[in-house]
Predict the 3D structure of the following.
Amino acid sequence: MKKIITLSLLLFVGFINAQAFKGKGDTKFNLGANIQNGGSGIGVSSDFGIGENMSYGFAVSYLLSVDSNVLGNKPEFGDRIDAKFRFNANLGNVFQLDEKMDIYPGLDLGLRNFGAHLGFRYFFTEGFGVFTEAGVPIASYKTNPIGFDKLNNQFVFNIGASFNL
């Protein structure tokens, strides 16, 4: 019984000290599922705090499962991967959310398009939490993306684990 109480208290203290965004010098790493029309895969991203409410970072996604086109062709490696530079406004403290939560709208400049995203993080402990993001393209580099060019030029949803480094 003492072990259960001790473990419960340790977990409780861990939950109290969790903080979603600390500001300058803070580093986050996200690993999760990438879900979009016509395919799903994995996505990784990192964010580096440069101010009280600002961060920049990088994101890479790779589609593992992709629908074939009408001719039965599967996309090449270059059609499945996307990499982006991103800038976030971390607004958890602006909206007076619990310090374990952060909401972050942002812009991203990628291999396929210029886009925007909106994300949310919740940390259970100092080092581990969950995140979810939704992203949309604002301007595609191709005037009319067709075929596999549409894969990384559409609404995308990401969900997964977030780590405080």
